[in-house]
Amino acid sequence: MILNSMPSKTPLFDAAIDAILSPLTPHTRTCVETGETFEITQRDIDMFRTLRVPPPQTTWWARLRQKRMFIGGFDFFRRTLPDGTSVVSSYDPESDVHIMRQSDWNADSFDPSKYGQAIDPNKSFFEQRSILSKNVPRPAIIQDPRNENCEYAMYLTGSKNCYYSLTGFSVEDALFSDMCSWVKNIAEGITDTNCEWCYYTVQCNQCSRVHYSELCTDSHNLLFCLGCSNCSDCFGCTNLRNKKFYFLNEQLTEEEYRRRVKEIDLTDANVVEEWKKKIASIWANAFRKSSEIRGSEDAAGDLIENSHHVEGISIFESERVYYGFGMINGGKDDMDFTSSINCELSYGIVRTMRGYENKMTLACEDCMDVEYSELLTACEHCFGCIGLKHQKFCIFNKQYTEGAYWPLVDAIKTAMLARGEYGEFFPHRESPFAYNTSQTITLFPLEETEAKRIGARWYAFKDEISAEATPIEELPMRLADTKDDILKKRFRCPVSGRAFAFVKPELELHRTLGLALPRLHPSIRHKNLATQLLPFQLFVRACDSCKKESKTRISPTHKAPVYCPDCYEAIVIGEKEALKA
Predict the structure, then answer these.
(1) Which of 261, 289, 317 is the last residue of a domain?
(2) Mean pLDDT calculated for residue range 463-484
(3) Cα gap 56→40, rounded to integer Å
């Protein structure tokens, strides 16, 4: 518990939360959403006391799934504004939020406080907040105003010439990318960094002309490779280091290698699909590294760098942050977070940047002591607000004096705690996105019935299913047979039935790389590629060599050997023999 000599501004809440936390001891809980058991450790309890929140009711991965539902996904929609003009939006036509142009939303003339409403502490907070959510407009799509030519892109910063791309920094000439940063001339990539001229890749770093590959670093001219580092001119290889001219992990001469690769016509879509199936079988039996942790101490999880006393996924330059995915640039004393930057003493935050003592916030920037709020900029001491800028002492967008604010917040939080609301993120039903149009469908794929079971909405895409679209069979299999007239057509996806079109940069990129055009709707392609992502939860698993247990994203049901980082590196450089799958 943080000691503070100042009188409490919320004495009723403090007494109520102390009554819950003071007697708390480590124990096992059952997730109210999944039925799984999960542990509340002493470390967790210490963090609850520091952050002044009660223990959660669900497992950490279920909490992450819930938060990602409030981030827009891989679909974009043409929506009509009240003035009759059309805009690109991340919100589907059935979403109940009002939308407006981002430029209008950012304008000084737009005042979200005019939607302010009173709150009754004795009624459900979430039900009252739902009314505010339906009244306050959102920007049709969230974009960095510095971006250039990125109409069909969202959550990108400092980017240009992007199409159907989401979430990243310094993305240029990218198509259908997701969670990529510092990339250029790529398509169909997920979680790639510092890559160029790459296609259909997952979690590759410092790569050039790497295609249909995963977990490769510092490499170029790779095809269908997994876990290769500092390699070039390899095809269908796994777990190689410093190699060249390898085919299915067999060393060849340069002449023989180039002859074999030339015989495989990847400009033919049928050939690509045949090799995808062959490679899937090879990868299923390839050994894996349990986790990627560098320059860190007391760290559990995956993709962790230069951090101390942390647990989660994709954590960089942080300390004492637990149970989250995505914290960079100095996170400190945080818990239950996703896609946030430089936050301190915060809990339950989503896409929150440079925050201090924030709780249950969504897309807030430069805020302090803000709770249950969304799209706030440079605000302090606000509760349950949407869209405010440079405001203090507001509740549900309504302005209060400082003297009136604190007793009302005290009453609200105390009542929420008694109802089991406080500390919980916004319910699934409150998301402005349907489950399958939010980013959580990428990280935690569910079918419609499963999504509805947890209270989420589902969008049917009825308007995009068209019998008038050109059958995909009319798209030539070979790239050489494909003419520019395909850019004037809309093709019908054979899986979803949805119509889709090719854009000129996409056709040009495929011709440059010499790779066949895809034959499925972008959302289906993205869904298929996302199946290669490791689960966004952690399992305890023993290294198949030294038997040391650690937390890994690789499920215990994965049959191929999994090695701790030390044993894995010893095996790939030949100092230790790998187990057979």
Answers:
(1) 289
(2) 88
(3) 9
Residue 153 and residue 162 in contact, taking contact as beta carbons nearer than 8 Å = yes
Quick one: 263 and 312 in the same domain? no
pLDDT the model gives residue 213 = 98
| Separation of alpha carbons 39 and 17, rounded Å | 20
Cα–Cα distance measured from residue 367 to residue 156, given in angstroms and rounded to the nearest whole number: 21
What is the model's pTM? 0.92
Beta strands 359-362 and 368-374: pairing type? parallel
- 3-class SS shares of the chain: helix, strand, coil, % to 5: 25, 30, 40
Q: Domain count of the chain?
A: 2
State yes or no: pLDDT of 1 exceeds 50: no
Q: Look up the domain containing 271 and give its range.
A: 169-289
Q: Which residue has the tokens 């419609």?
A: 448
Q: What is the pLDDT of residue 581?
A: 52
Other Cβ atoms closer than 10 A to 499: 20
Q: Is 189 helix (H, G, I), strand (E, B) or coil?
A: strand
Task: Quickly tell me which residue has 């015989």 as its tokens.
Answer: 263
Burial 513-522 (b: 16+ CB within 10 A, else e): bebbbbbbbb
Q: Would you say residue 279 lies in a domain?
A: yes
302 and 362 co-located in one domain: yes
Distances (CA, A) of 246 to 221, 238, 421, 446: 11, 10, 57, 38
Binned at pLDDT 50, 70 and 90, residue 3 comes out as very low
Residue 248 sits in the same domain as residue 300: no
Residue 72 burial by Cβ neighbours in a 10 Å radius (0-12, 13-18, 19+): buried
Task: Yes or no: say if 331 and 318 are a contact pair by the CB < 8 Å rule.
Answer: yes
Residues 6+ apart with CB under 8 A from 78: 86, 87, 88, 89
Position 304 scores a pLDDT of 95
DSSP 8-state class, residue 34: T
CA dihedral 318, 59, 189, 471 (to 10 degrees): -160
Range of weakest confidence among 43-47, 111-115, 153-157, 455-459: 153-157
Domain membership flag for residue 109? no
- Closest to 235 in 3D by CA, of 218, 216, 310: 216
Residue 244 sits in the same domain as residue 336: no
Is a pLDDT exceeding 60 seen at residue 4? no
- Which among 424, 419, 454 has a CA at the least distance from the CA of 440? 454
Question: For residue 60, is it left (φ>0), alpha (ψ between -120 and 50) or beta?
Answer: alpha
Whether 541 has a pLDDT exceeding 70, the answer reads yes
Amino acid 310 reads: V
- Give 552's contacts (C-beta < 8 A, 6+ positions apart): 290, 291, 302, 538, 539, 540, 541, 562
Q: Which residues are CB-neighbours of 109 under 8 A, at least 6 positions away?
A: none
pLDDT at 2 over 80: no
Quick: pLDDT tens for 393-410: 999 999 999 999 999 999
Residues 30/409, Cβ–Cβ less than 8 Å: no
279 membership: H or E segment, kind and range: helix 269-284
